[in-house]
Amino acid sequence: MYRREALAVLLNTLAGSSGFSGESALQYTARTVAFGPRAPGSEAHQRLEDYILSELKLRRCEVSVDSFTARTPLGPVGMKNLIARFRGASGRAVAVTGHYDTKHMPGIRFAGANDGGSSTGFLLEMARVLSDQLRRDDVYLVWFDGEEAFGDWSPDDSLYGSRHLARKWASDGTARRLKALINVDMIGDRNLGVEADRNSSARLRGYVWRVAEDIGYGRYFLNEPGYIDDDHSPFNEIGVNALDLIDFDYG
Predict the structure, then answer these.
(1) Among residues of the chain, what percentage have pLDDT more than 90?
(2) What is the pTM of this model?
(3) Which of 77, 150, 158, 249 stands 20 to 30 A from 38 (CA)?
(4) Quick check: 47 and 134 in contact, CB under 8 A?
(5) What is the per-residue pLDDT for 108?
(6) Distances in Å between the alpha carbon of 220 and those of 13, 175, 214?
(7) For residue 249, which phi and psi values (nearest 5 degrees)?
(8) 164 near 43, Cβ under 8 Å?
């Protein structure tokens, strides 16, 4: 069983008892969207990266930048995963993740308010809340770069940031410390319906769904099965209990 301490931050967030503010998360999302389309390598992407790092400097956390060069259909593209570590004392860890890039769509002003913006705003609000909390386990917040494909979605053209960090954390031992990784994506729908992703850890999915029901949010966590390939997938592949919270049927 998953111990309540391991996912305390997520559960408190769902329950609204931690000080997490949906209005504040929406404001962070609006600021994110105001930068414009944020495909990797763009000026707007760089401005957003600077903004996230400036916000994290205000929090009680350790900030690191995981820089790498992705091989894309358009050639090499520099990317950066942004990581905030809020230390606990147990030696174990929980990760909450999402992506901050938007899809490369030349000639189209793609705002990415839901797809890329909502996860960015959610994580910035999580950082604000975590800064004032005591915790048993380390909590990592990760803003993945390069989630979107540059062409047609494929195993080689997608999830650049999460694939890179999964390899890194498998190598340096961080993955072995993770009790759970929860990825959020496309959570900005006014009529939210989080799919029961069958590519996620069944144990972790069942646990979160039960808690959501217990605290009165069960209507937002659907039982219809989905099979989602998202930033949680590379971590499932290396044995991490990983879960994707996504409303894929947006609009």
Answers:
(1) 81
(2) 0.93
(3) 249
(4) no
(5) 87
(6) 14, 29, 12
(7) -95, 40
(8) no
